Amino acid sequence: MKEMYARLGVSEQVFACGERILEGLKDRFAQVDRVAEYNQAKVIAAMQKNRVSSACFAATTGYGYDDLGRDVLERVYADTFHTEAALVRPQITCGTHALTVALSANLLPGDELLSPVGRPYDTLEEVIGIRESSCSLKEYGVSYAQADLKPDGSFDYDAIRAAINEKTKLATIQRSKGYATRPTFSVRQIGELIAFLKSVKPDIICMVDNCYGEFTETIEPSDVGADLTVGSLIKNPGGGLAPIGGYICGRKDLVARCAYRLSAPGLGQEVGANLGQMPAFYQGFFLAPTVVAGALKGAIFAANLYERMGFRVVPDGAEPRHDIIQAVELGSREAMVAFCKGIQSAAPVESYVDPAPWAMPGYEDEVIMAAGTFVQGSSIELSADGPIRPPYAVYFQGGLTWYHAKLGILLSVQKLVEEGLAKIEEEK
Ligand SMILES: *Cc1c(COP(=O)(O)O)cnc(C)c1O
User: Fold this and answer.
1) CB-based contacts of 167: which residues, under 8 Å, 6+ apart?
2) Cα separations (Å) of 191 from 4, 225, 236, 320, 332?
3) From atom 12 of ligand 1, which residue's Cα is the shortest distance away?
């Protein structure tokens, strides 16, 4: 094994250090496997209930009227998330698009959007109009209010109550930390927040940005009162096989509006050919619980390894997990570049390229990304990225298999050590 890793560029010292860390993680990994087992059963049950058949895998084109595969898949998602309805489409181009559809379908001029969990994910700033952008919600007369989290990362209930007014129509709750070093919320915490929001204003629509959270727990935000649960298929629920797509699960009336927004008023959910994506969508969803488990193991391993080397990691090595993202605060631009080089060099695809910081559409700061992926930009595949700004944190996620995640993490350590940016403890 040592020799095989050496061939891939991992030194004996780094490999041995990883093995010592892994010794202490057996119980954590067993727990991750239990969650995956439960979620695997949940997905199979939804597929059986809806009589998934080979006819569902046929490609359709044109308008896509009476598209069996698409309609059954949406029932499978709805039953897995325990919602009345679901919209799952290759026409939803990414997570930001899914969230934009859900927001713009359910907010009208004069309405106010509330984020009770502080600043939203970078790309949503232009969607909302926090940063000026053509076609933002702000341009259409939708205002925005925000209640920041308390310094310890908990909900500021007084600030939230004060922010709710007669215009407040929809609250957007981001489950995952995104590009911030605040904690990710558990589904149970999200449930408490939703209950509070509804106690202040019973008709408030609660939407959860579920990106990176799917299948990390046995329940989803839709199990604790979320009216809309939204995410990307090139993250967790696509299982690495979906080449594009997004989903919106939730209340029937709200999802119907999303479909009208996505296609056109009057057309809604009835149109939208599946373009041959059904085999990937079904099989990816089937594999997603185990793929997520592999990614979670990678995140737990990275947290413990980097923590041992003296870096601040969020979440820390012992904390429970509610998403697949691991932040490592590396403290400098150089260390971010070295880390990303390591991840890239572990890839099955384009392992020979060197990632470099670059300006990206939707992001304010320069961003560095390492992703040698089968699906471009897919972050359920092993990837690392982060905006070049203090505290110089990289956000590491994914890995279609645990072994690949492990290799990437070991190579990231290797690069940091080689460039004198980190030290590993020697065996005692
Ligand atoms: C990835 C992500 C998004 C946006 O998804 P894209 O597919 O990159 O557009 C939104 N919110 C969170 C929390 C995310 O992690």
Assistant:
1) 110, 111, 112, 143
2) 46, 6, 21, 17, 37
3) 211
The torsion angles phi and psi of 143, rounded to 5 degrees, stand at -90, 170
Helix, strand or coil for residue 187?
Answer: helix
Longest dimension (CA), the chain: 70
213 Cβ closer than 6 Å to some ligand 1 atom: no
pTM: 0.95
Would the CB of 174 count as within 6 Å of ligand 1? yes
pLDDT in tens, 182-219: 889 999 999 999 999 999 999 999 999 999 999 999 99
**Numbers of helices and strands, H then E, in the chain:** 12, 12
Length of the chain: 428
The residue contributing the CA closest to ligand 1 atom 8 is: 95
Encode pLDDT of 11-47 as tens digits. 999 999 999 999 999 999 999 999 999 999 999 999 9
Give the mutation target among 209, 216, 232 for probing the ligand 1 site: most ligand atoms within 8 A of CB.
Answer: 232
pLDDT tens-digit series, residues 296-318: 999 999 999 999 999 999 999 99
Sign of the C-alpha dihedral, residues 299, 300, 301, 303? Answer: positive
232 Cβ below 6 A of ligand 1 = yes
- DSSP letter at 423 equals -
Which residue matches tokens 């939708």?
Answer: 142
- Domains of the chain, earliest start first: 2-39+288-418 (3.90.1150.60), 58-285 (3.40.640.10)
Residue 176 Cβ inside 6 Å of ligand 1? The answer reads yes
Scan for tokens 């909302």, then name that residue: 128
Is the CB of 146 inside a 6 Å radius of any atom of ligand 1?
no
- Closest-CA residue to 245 (of 217, 282, 295, 271): 282
Burial label, 258 (beta-carbon count in 10 A; 0-12, 13-18, 19+): buried
DSSP code per residue over 371-422:
E--SSTT-SSSSEEEEESSTTTEEEEE--SSHHHHHHHHHHHHHHHHHTTS-
Going by alpha carbons, the residue nearest to atom 7 of ligand 1 is 95
Cβ 388 vs Cβ 331: under 8 Å: no
Cα end-to-end span (Å), the chain: 22
Other Cβ atoms closer than 10 A to 318: 10
* 100 CB near ligand 1 (under 6 Å): no
